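We emphasize that the prediction below concerns an isolated chain of 191 residues; any contacts that depend on oligomerization or on bound cofactors are therefore not represented. The input was used exactly as deposited, without trimming of termini.
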Amino acid sequence: MENGKLDSSSDVYPTMNDGLQQAAEYMRTLQQRFQSSVWTPGKQRSRVFADAHPITAIFLGIFGALALVPVASYLIFMAFVLVSCVSVALALAIGFTLFVGFWAGVFLFFTLLLVLCFTCLATAAALGFYLFYRLIFHVQSEDGQGVRGWAYETKNRLVPSGVQQYADNAQKKAADYYATAKEQSLKLDQM
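Result of the prediction step, given as a token string:
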């Protein structure tokens, strides 16, 4: 590195260069194996066959050259059909899944709505039975305090304390307002 510039001859990325060299060496090895085990023996067998059967070799050569385009077209067409069928099938599967999922969601919504209604009804019935039982207890029992005791107990059990305090404060403010208004109207009448 000179004057803040990278030197192109230095090994900036030694592992990358090593990886590229290994890949190139591997490709050369594959090429040599293919040439020695497939290409050269195949070429020799073809020459031996052509020397032994020249007319058949010419026929196979012409047939191979002429059949190359139809076979390639067939393979391309079949690949296109396969990709098209898989794409259409996948699109239909996703669409059908979304369709069924939507209607199952609608069914689930109305089922949960029905469950909510039954839950509200059951809760209201249980609360009503409990309040009726406590009313009977307060009215008929010696320990009970009558309807007034039942109302006080119901208010304390069912209404949260913060709401009760807010309601009590509102009642006090309303009473104070009416008392102040009454006093002011009496003062105006006396004038």
